[in-house]
Write a structure and sequence with these properties.
Number of helices: 11
Order of helices and strands: HHHHHHHHHEHEEHE
Distance between the termini: 37 Å
Shape: globular
Strand content: 5-15%
Structural class: alpha+beta
Radius of gyration: 20 Å
Number of strands: 4
């Protein structure tokens, strides 16, 4: 798992410019690559800090700090990602990571049945985190990968061998690639710009890093060849589109289930791209859960006031959806 997230951090760092270049949905703000990279980096670094799980080769037991518990390791990474998630794509990936950890809890190795369960739980949770989920995005890529892994697991009758795991990982990545190609015709904005979805490509890269880390094989860089808008010489598509007004507001806050439902409903009325997901699963002494909140609104003040009326938010960030651009249509 440490190797997976380390590979993903490197891959997204290498590809962030091209992901930014084709980022036009839900807003053409050209930051999907950056947001995914920073979110994955937070997850990777959580496993390399002073309290990080020890290398399995030096661990004596599976109990101390859960160093041999795959689910515990991913949960730690997912919570760090959630706390530092950036943008729609980063928030959805952190939701994916936290949810994927749940079926893996207590297990010391990954298998085809566990991979299928983890990917399915993760894609369902990601779809449900968004108030208005849209096909043709990284959600569709997550779903396709999960369905493919489940299909292999069914064909292999729950075989937990490394061979079956390899087949499931290969199928998941192949299905993810096919889903990425389909995004261009699923969303009108992508079809008009003749590009695939940036978040979908980022998720594809992350899944291929998982396949590479588990199987000890190279990344399949050739699979990106021919993706529309993804050649190095292609222009930054988003720079030629109209600026998007408004801001992105993000924070972490402890809320009761009722207050969380109220906040989601009122944010839905106030803006769009509303994402709410629990950070960890523990309820505090006051009957509240920690939530990561994300929304696009025309002005930050009403949203910040609403959030503050229901609790005490932390890590509040407000960023413009429109990036400054020079007269030639490029970002400054």
């Amino acid at each position: 798992m440490k190797r997976w997230l380390g590979k993903a951090e490197t891959a997204l760092g290498n590809h962030s410019d091209r992901l930014n270049a084709i980022n036009i949905f839900p807003v053409a703000d050209g930051d999907t690559g950056t947001n995914l990279y920073l979110t994955v980096r937070a997850a990777a670094r959580a496993l390399n800090g002073p309290e990080a799980p020890h290398d399995p080769g030096t661990a004596n037991t599976a109990g101390s700090h859960g160093q041999q518990d795959v689910g515990a390791v991913l949960a730690r990474a997912g919570e760090a990602a959630m706390e530092q998630a950036r943008g729609n794509s980063g928030t959805l990936f952190s939701v994916f990571l936290c949810a994927a950890a749940e079926p893996l809890a207590g297990h010391t190795r990954l298998s085809s049945p566990l991979l299928a369960a983890a990917l399915n739980r993760a894609q369902i949770r990601a779809w449900s985190a968004l108030s208005d989920p849209v096909p043709g995005t990284m959600l569709s890529v997550m779903e396709a990968a999960a369905r493919a892994a489940a299909g292999v697991d069914a064909d292999q009758n729950g075989d937990d061998s490394n061979h079956a795991l390899g087949l499931a990982l290969d199928a998941a990545v192949e299905a993810a690639l096919e889903a990425v190609v389909r995004t261009e015709d699923q969303l009108a904005a992508l079809h008009a710009a003749h590009v695939v979805d940036a978040g979908g490509v980022g998720m594809l890269l992350i899944l291929d890093c998982l396949r590479s880390a588990v199987l000890g094989e190279e990344l399949q860089s050739e699979m990106l060849d021919g993706l529309h808008g993804y050649d190095v010489q292609d222009p930054h598509i988003h720079a030629d589109l109209p600026d998007d007004d408004g801001v992105e507001v993000m924070c972490t806050i402890s809320l009761s289930p009722l207050d969380a439902a109220t906040l989601r409903q009122r944010l839905d009325e106030m803006g769009d791209s509303v994402i709410m997901s629990q950070v960890g699963g523990a309820m505090d002494a006051g009957g509240k859960y920690r939530w990561r909140v994300h929304v696009h609104v025309s002005a930050p003040e009403p949203a910040v006031a609403l959030i503050g009326s229901l609790g005490e938010p932390t890590d509040i960030s407000v960023s413009q959806l429109a990036l400054p651009r020079d007269p030639n249509g490029h970002e400054r």
